Amino acid sequence: MFHFRFLSRLSSLTAFFALSASVLCAADLKEPITLSSANGVLDILMIAKAGSINTLPGAPTGWVFQICRRPADNSNTCPPDAGSPNYYGGTRLQLEQGDLLKVRLVNQLPLALDSEHAAEPGHEFLRLNPVNIHTHGLIVSPHGPTASDPTYGDNIFVLTFNSANGKPEVTPHLHADVRYDYTDYSIRIPASHPSGLFWFHPHAHGLALNQISAGLAGIITIGHPSDYVCKNFACAALLPSIGLRHILLKDAQVLPNGQLQTQEDPDFSDPQRDPDESPRLGHAAGVDTSDQGGPDYQGGQWFFTLNGQLYPTLPVTSPAGEIWRITNTSGSATYNLNLFSPAQNRNMIMQVVASDGVSISPSADMTLGQMTQIGGSKFKPEACPVTHGFAAIAGQASLCTRNLLLMPSARVEVWVSYRNSQDMVASAPQNSYAVLRTTGFQTGPAGDSWPAVDLARVNFNSSLQLNMQGLLGLAGEANNVSSPAVLANQLSAANKAAETANCKALPAGHMRRIFYAVPTTDLDAFGLAYEEIDEKGRVVGPPATDVTAFNPMNDTICLPLGPGNTPVYERWQLINVAQEDHNFHIHQTKFRVLTDDELSGAILPNSLRGRGVEFDNLPLPHADGVCGNDPSGDLSNPIADWRAGLCKAHAITVEIPFAVAGKFVYHCHILEHEDGGMMAVIQVVPAK
Ligand SMILES: [Cu+2]
Asked: Confidence band (pLDDT; 50, 70, 90) for 677?
């Protein structure tokens, strides 16, 4: 590819824009198709079907959600398209607090021909390509249908088959409500739900990687950035001058024959660009992997797009910079994002505004060390540089970073503005630009190498200088998410109606411990294990012996809500004993990472609750040393090895508030691992 060097030699922006229309790689980034609620309701038809990805060379066929408002005649067909809408780029559903999201999901997908798990005994039904939806990050009810209401909530235990593909054989692995052609969902957003960025995608176990890699993903936004930006600070006057972008990161592997590969292979391209290779502007070349027993991908391309667009241009023209709302909608790929300034030869600093759909609220008395711990490895915090002459915002620290680690499903909102070589917000010199890139990421000795690719060109063209401190004041919502009593109250009807079961609350001071590893008996699978520990770290009840792959019939964890269906806080210790990183995700709630100071009692327990950040997915770094099955062929039990001290795991303890009753799951959001079994069922039941 020659575009990058050619364009960078151009001296005038006018010339650049005149050319850009004819150059595929240099089109301006477009916002996703957006559908907004009206009068408290968004009622849509969501058709999962094959569709051409017309933004990529050769227009390969992917699977897309065609979304339209529900037709008045109640049919399952959207009106004919005007033009050629970019469904692959992903649709944004804009909702307000208190809204009802009504979805009729229609399955018109073709057969899933390259699904790896469809070849396993009992899983043949996966070839029929059944689909469902999950609203990732929303704190909503996962209800099932009742006699008076036939709709589903954010419930993954239902699969909709396309009857044109045939009927499934019923096996124990098909533990979901089986429906044909369409399913109705109704999802009520609580009135006090945080404002921010969420997303939706299918959650059919065994097919999640295929369906999401093929393009089935979109985003949900609730409320508006003005709900949390500049609320408590003099920058309110700047709000109208701040630009807003929604960016869906999607990747697609196109084989040498022009077909999309939905069973993604992390070895498709080399991790880093070869010195002889042309610059990787939105794509990396396929390589021959036959020396490792894999296919020959030479002549194929791995595309990394923004809203389906290949290496677009992001013109930053708003006088007060832009807020970028970024979602990693990939099946398994991790992005390690930087905003690289060639003129300054370094990564520009950005202010972190929100993470995983919740605006952040770091308190001024939180130390940088504590901020580093609560952020997991998602970002390496730095204090934001404040323009000389301005004081810090009273009571509030700010969080800036030069690096964003986005494992699959992660969202982040950052404020991007031109910065001079002292990191200060400044008027951009003519022709200033930066490159949004992922530098590549290796998920451990037994993990994957996600490639380094330049994703977009960012042209800074803000000529207006506004008198600002150099940071945005934030009214963080992390506080109300970590005290979800109001949310629980708004969900009271759904919570009361949830299934009941006889289960006991976790005793005070106890923790649940979850192990992540490869099962001793099946090196191709992935699994989780569970045990309870007391305040001294001693195992209570049956100890975990080996990790097991997902069993939908088994509620691994069951807990009741508190008296009057009030929220319950639990501490979970997450222990990754594998030699590769995983990404913990739990449905229907958020969580926060506990600092060493809270765990050791050096500060009052929960004194940091309501401050900092709240997540719905979290990188779990791999263990150092070898526990369990060594890739060199030494078979052993990962948990026994860990107890014997054969490896050092980096345990992370999180506090999870449970305010929503129902049956849902926690799992690794690397979908190769989720499909491989790294998932378990949790049931939260109403109080007795
Ligand atoms: Cu994983």
From this structure: very high
Q: Looking at the domain that runs over 227-460, which CATH code has it been given?
A: 2.60.40.420
Q: How many Å lie between the centroid of ligand 1 and the Cα of residue 581? A: 6
pLDDT grade, residue 479 (50/70/90)? Answer: confident
Distance 580 CA to ligand 1 centre (A): 8
Q: What is the CATH code for 487-685?
A: 2.60.40.420
Q: Is the whole-model pTM more than 0.85?
A: yes
Give Cβ neighbours of residue 13 (< 8 Å, ≥ 6 apart).
430, 431, 459, 461
- Express each pLDDT in 159-188 by its tens digit: 999 999 999 988 877 889 999 999 999 999
- Quick one: pLDDT at residue 368? 81
pLDDT number for residue 396? 63
How many angstroms is it from 459 CA to the middle of ligand 1? 36
SS (H, E, C) 182-219: EEEEEEECCCCCCCEEEEEECCCCCCHHHHHHCCCCEE
Report whether 571 contacts 653 (CB < 8 A): yes
Cα(220) to centroid(ligand 1), Å:
24
Mean pLDDT score, 70-89: 93
Second-level CATH architecture of 33-223: Sandwich (2.60)
End-to-end CA distance of the chain: 65
Dist. CA 576 → ligand 1 center (Å): 9
Tell me how far apart the alpha carbons of residues 90 and 111 are, in angstroms, rounded to a whole number. Answer: 22
Instruction: Kindly give the distance from the C-alpha atom of residue 629 to the centroid of ligand 1, in angstroms, as a whole number.
Output: 16
How far, in Å, from the CA of 98 to the mean position of ligand 1? Answer: 34
CA of 408 to the centre of ligand 1 (A): 10
pLDDT of residue 605: 80
Q: How far is the CA of 86 from the centre of ligand 1 (A)?
A: 31
Cα(527) to centroid of ligand 1, in Å? 9
Closest CA to 517 of 573, 581, 571: 581
- Per DSSP, the three-state class of 16 is helix
Specify the DSSP class assigned to residue 230. Answer: S
Alpha carbon distance 465, 425 (integer Å):
9
619 CA distance to ligand 1 middle (Å): 9
Q: Rounded distance, CA 681 to CA 671, Å?
A: 16
Whether 227-460 shares its CATH topology with 487-685 is answered: yes
Total number of residues shown for the chain: 688
Q: How confident is the model at residue 473 (pLDDT cuts 50, 70, 90)?
A: confident
pLDDT for 531 = 98
For ligand 1, the distance from its centroid to the CA atom of residue 584, given in whole angstroms, is 8
- Alpha-carbon distance 352 to 362, whole Å? 11
Mapping DSSP onto H, E and C, the string for 465-512 reads: CCCCCCCCCECCCHHHHHCCHHHHHHCHHHHHHCCCCCCCCCCCCCEE
- Residue 303 near residue 284 (C-beta atoms within 8 A): no
Structural tokens at position 341: 């300034």
Q: Is 369 helix (H, G, I), strand (E, B) or coil?
A: helix
Statement: residue 612 has pLDDT above 80: yes
pLDDT digits (tens, 9 = 90+) for 316-355: 998 889 999 999 999 999 999 999 999 999 999 999 999 9
Structural domain spans, the chain: 33-223, 227-460, 487-685
User: How high does pLDDT run on average in the chain?
Assistant: 91
Residue among 304, 314, 337 at smallest CA distance from 245? 314
Instruction: Determine the distance separating the centroid of ligand 1 and the alpha carbon of 666, expressed in angstroms.
Output: 12
